[in-house]
Amino acid sequence: MTEDLSPAERYAAARIRAAEEATALAPFRELYEFELDPFQIEACQALESGKGVLVAAPTGSGKTIVGEFAVHLALAQGRKCFYTTPIKALSNQKYTDLVKRYGAEKVGLLTGDNSVNSDAPVVVMTTEVLRNMLYAGSQSLRGLGYVVMDEVHYLSDRFRGAVWEEVIIHLPESVTLVSLSATVSNAEEFGDWLDTVRGDTEVIVSEDRPVPLWQHVLAGRRMYDLFEEETDHGGRGAGRREVNPDLVRMARMESQRTYNPRERRRGKMVREADRERERRQRNRIWTPARPEVIERLDAAGLLPAITFIFSRAGCEAAVQQCMHAGLRLNDEDARRRVREIVEERTASIPGEDLNVLGYYEWLEGLERGIAAHHAGMLPTFKEVVEELFVRGLVKAVFATETLALGINMPARSVVLEKLVKWNGEQHADITPGEYTQLTGRAGRRGIDVEGYAVVLWQRGMDPGALAGLAGTRTYPLRSSFKPSYNMAVNLVQQFGRHRSRELLETSFAQFQADKSVVGISRQVQKNEEGLEGYREGMTCHLGNFEEYARLRRELKDRETELAKQGVAQRRAAAATSLEKLKPGDVIHVPAGKFAGLALVLDPGLPAGRTNGHRGLEHYDGPRPLVLTAERQVKRLASMDFPVPVEAMERMRIPKSFNARSPQSRRDLASALRSKAGHIEPERHRKQRAAAADDRDIARLRTEIRAHPCHGCDEREDHARWAERYHRLQRDTKQLERRIEGRTNTIARTFDRIHALLTELDYLRGNEVTEHGRRLARLYGELDLLASECLRAGVWEGLNPPELAACVSALVYESRQSDDAVVPKTPTGKAQVALGEMVRIWGRLDALEEDHKINQAEGVGQREPDLGFAWAAYQWASGKGLDEVLREAEMPAGDFVRWSKQVIDVLGQIAAAAPSTSDGSTVARNARKAVDALLRGVVAYSSVG
Predict the structure, then answer these.
(1) H or E stretch at 566
(2) What tens digit of pLDDT does each residue of 656-667 get?
(3) Contact by Cβ (8 Å): 377, 390
């Protein structure tokens, strides 16, 4: 190639090579055995030139290479680099990777659980740790040159997303930011915001998967392609992709009814033919069992595979099913290696705890190459599963969606059992973004030529909807940023109220809101031009038609209002009459499908207030159960009674009456007709319309007739233009209200929080009080409640286990709210303190309502949850793991996670509480509680 170049071209190429070799990127590229992709090179070059970067690329594409280059640059320049991740497991994994490359002396780790070599030039940490360091003005920030924010798309997370924006806004200007994101459809918008708050930021978007992904549906004995490709291999060309017609045909056949009532007369032969056709159809279409799926994938050479099941219990059940089916994916040598690794990693766990944790059943599954992976597992167990999977010693993992959050566990295939998951409130379809995230695990770079996404056929599946999920590879990044109490005092302490307000207005949330206002403003301008045209159309030579139209509108509104009042009064009267009915009353149902003579069997009144909730907000009036003269037993609704009803007669209902018995119904209906069939129902007199006597209506009609425009020949034409003018004017005012609502929304929320904190004496204008300085050290969802408890001395005099129980209420949230079950709590002082915490929360809740601080919008204090108090008390008291888990009815992983969160908050309380010299016992006992909780399974380090 070089021989074909002219001397000038060869000289130019040599200069380019020399320039490249002089960069920091050249030696960095030599650290890898593979060539970097164009997007990685582009991002690294931008970084070296001093720009910040946002890299948006699919899962598994290698965007962390750019983060590692930031580490390389920091070390080369003698500066620091902080590498942040959203979850501790990712932090631990990235710490291990960087230690292998740069050595343990150069790399540190800071999570809520671990602190390893925190003064190192490269420190891996969770995003919350960096946020806390920024607010505290930590000395560790000195010399900081680069911050890598891995999985930055987490700022969409409605619970924790605000932390990412806080860090981005508050990092010193001298720090270069490296943002790594999954593929999002508004990367440019996010990049524009980063450009605004962080300075020059290069946006690099790559939508190419490093390994092509094939989409399949597994139904019965056959694996179907989801798409009928009209593109190049792997479907990465620009051609059109059609849904596989075989799948569409299967869905249509399944939805058709096997038996058509019209064809019944054709006799037995037709029905037998129908049954035979259905049998053949069923033989082709069914949802394969879990062991069968793994066997099919194994036979096709598609293992290792991750099967996503949106349930922890489902993951554990899947492992059991595979074991009962005799599935073995490992040979004897692999089994031996699995046992060696597992025994080495779990050597520090006492034998009695291993029994409680189901160690031997778990090990048996691992030896067979099968495992579960979910948040309910002990962290050590999860890490072993991850290590064995990466080594190829576990070939089938059944996991919840938490595995898709960036942990390095690529597979050849990903299986989705269902396309519906529980989102904490309801069962909802997974989004295109979630589908992309889950299937992104399929295809191991450098190992697999192709990756495979397999969805199991389910009854009622819509192949078109699945194709929509698979074809939409991007999803928008939406800010979840909201100011909190802790954020407010920290901001005011550092910047004062006015500057804090300005800072909050630079958030991505406000940036997006302001951007949406531009389009609405444009529509308002168009509407105003339209209003001008309509005003001309309704101009009348006799007078002011706008005034005349207003009178007509007021008349119409008043007539509508009176009509609604009349309907409401009639409904209220009807409901009152229904409430007076008793079993045995004979009535005449005035309207509806079952109008006519009826006997009341049950008045249908509610039993009373339910679940302790105030009022009957959803009570829709009495719904009497009646027997009609035609022998039907029906539950009637309020719409069947447009007018009041009265009992015409009384009848005794036999004790032997059974509403389900045709004979019982026949006999009682016959008695009903005999008793009251001859009685004529009383006709309901139509009342005089309220409008006839209304003074406002009379006045408006007089004014309308007296108006000059009333005599205009073109009056109705003008009226039509006036109606259009009114509708457009109403729409325009709504748009203006939307603009007003979206402008300065974050700052207005901050103002409300500031006002509440001022009332509680945490803030005095730009000054942070002693109570405010305490709140500034308390991070968490219930920061203000914790501060108020310290202020009121609620926890004084509690011993360490009692304090642990109380603090658990600040962090714990039940996975399922069950108001009927009262959680077990310690007695004595702890019980009194927990009760006082709930009372303080009630006072804060009322105060938030006064200040229009809305929990539904993600701001404010939720009610403390006492569900973990007994477990925390027991564990801190030295009880054994078996007893604690049995009484808590909680998986070991959940227990460890909540315990570590309690430990984290106890550490904050120890730092924020009054000193021991002031006579307070809280700080000392909080530290003792940390020591009491940090033992056994809770203390097993997940690093090193």
Answers:
(1) helix 545-579
(2) 888 888 898 999
(3) no
